């Protein structure tokens, strides 16, 4: 919230640092080597990005004699600021830390990492959007959508798939931030709602791999249906909610004659939809009258609440 309401660069930078340091204890609980390794990777990447942001802030203040957040008039300061925010958001080619960190931490911490932690850098990107370089934004966005879709194709861990999905969605938000920043906020809100709903579904069923979804229908049929609807919405399949921001972004790009960019983004969305459909196919293997191709697992009634299912369905 400090980053969202501040109009001074120093206060915004402090908000980013507090945002980074606050999640480190959550990532290291419960304390084991995988969680600690992921937390160190995350801290090193975020610290490097914060150092570049501070360099850009000081350089911009030196050249323009002002510390206002909305005025980044120096070209080099804008470029360094954009690259540093790309590192914080996990945009390609700085995306390698996102799948590794997400895979090494629990589902709850992964949910916070892929949702709440994106708000502060996106807010700064939104506020300095008039000063950004369009060519650099398109390069970061298109590479993020293509690599995010390509990287998720051969994954079997659900957390890594959602991490690559996050990279793709960050690319969609970045490409439109200069043309229509309001669409960036709309896309971010829908992405956060859908991603949190998926993580809650996985947390309720204690599922982390695709092959474990083959028994999900036996555990909870409403949960399976909810998960399928949310995945299709996140992939941008009409007429679900997730299709709306993608449609509006493609429309704005075509209006501004960025037809090649719009085509690349549309084709990259098919890659994401493909591995979402693979998850859905695995989840529906046990539906009647198909035979279950996996071994049944004995399980007891879960004490976790299922009252969230209707609200998750409404989100999608």
Automatic annotation (TrEMBL):
It is an enzyme of class 7 (translocase). Its EC number is 7.1.1.2. Residues 6-270 form the NADH:quinone oxidoreductase/Mrp antiporter transmembrane domain. One of its GO terms (cellular component) is mitochondrial inner membrane. GO terms for biological process: mitochondrial electron transport, NADH to ubiquinone. Keywords: Electron transport, Membrane, Mitochondrion, Mitochondrion inner membrane, NAD, Respiratory chain, Translocase, Transmembrane, Transmembrane helix, Transport, Ubiquinone. The keyword Mitochondrion applies. It is a multi-pass membrane protein. It catalyses: a ubiquinone + NADH + 5 H(+)(in) = a ubiquinol + NAD(+) + 4 H(+)(out). It is found in: Mitochondrion inner membrane. The chain crosses the membrane at residues 12-30, 42-64, 76-98, 134-154, 161-179, 185-204, 254-277. InterPro entries: Complex_I_Subunit_2, NADH_DH_su2_C, NADH_UbQ_OxRdtase_chain2, ND/Mrp_TM. One of its GO terms (molecular function) is NADH dehydrogenase (ubiquinone) activity. Residues 273-316 form the NADH dehydrogenase subunit 2 C-terminal domain. Core subunit of the mitochondrial membrane respiratory chain NADH dehydrogenase (Complex I) which catalyzes electron transfer from NADH through the respiratory chain, using ubiquinone as an electron acceptor. Essential for the catalytic activity and assembly of complex I. Belongs to the complex I subunit 2 family. PANTHER family: NADH-UBIQUINONE OXIDOREDUCTASE CHAIN 2. This is NADH-ubiquinone oxidoreductase chain 2. It comes from Isoodon obesulus. The lineage of its organism: Eukaryota, Metazoa, Chordata, Craniata, Vertebrata.
């Amino acid at each position: 919230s400090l980053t969202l309401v501040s109009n001074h660069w120093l206060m915004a930078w402090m908000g980013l640092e507090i945002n980074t340091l606050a999640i480190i204890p959550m990532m290291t609980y419960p304390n084991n080597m995988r969680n600690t390794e992921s937390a160190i990777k995350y801290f090193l990447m975020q610290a490097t990005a914060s150092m570049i942001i501070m360099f850009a802030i000081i350089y911009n203040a030196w050249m323009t004699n002002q510390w206002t957040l909305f005025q980044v008039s120096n070209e080099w300061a804008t470029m360094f600021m954009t690259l540093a925010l790309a590192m914080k958001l996990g945009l390609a080619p700085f995306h390698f830390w996102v799948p590794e960190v997400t895979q090494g931490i629990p589902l709850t911490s992964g949910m916070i990492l892929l949702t709440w932690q994106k708000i502060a850098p996106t807010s700064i990107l939104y506020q300095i959007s008039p000063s950004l370089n369009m060519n650099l934004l398109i390069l970061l966005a298109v590479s993020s959508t293509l690599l995010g879709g390509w990287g998720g194709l051969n994954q079997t861990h659900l957390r890594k798939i959602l991490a690559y999905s996050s990279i793709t969605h960050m690319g969609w938000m970045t490409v439109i931030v200069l043309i229509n920043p309001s669409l960036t906020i709309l896309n971010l809100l829908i992405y956060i709602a859908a991603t949190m709903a998926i993580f809650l579904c996985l947390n309720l069923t204690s599922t982390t791999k695709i092959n474990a979804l083959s028994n999900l229908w036996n555990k909870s049929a409403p949960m399976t249906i909810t998960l399928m609807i949310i995945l299709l919405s996140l992939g941008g399949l009409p007429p679900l909610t997730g299709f709306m921001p993608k449609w509006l972004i493609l429309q704005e790009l075509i209006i501004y004659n960025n037809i090649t960019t719009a085509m690349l983004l549309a084709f990259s969305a098919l890659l994401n939809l493909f591995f979402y459909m693979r998850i859905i196919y695995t989840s529906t293997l046990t539906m009647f009258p198909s035979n279950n191709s996996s071994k049944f697992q004995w399980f007891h009634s879960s004490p976790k609440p299922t009252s969230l299912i209707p609200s998750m369905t409404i989100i999608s």
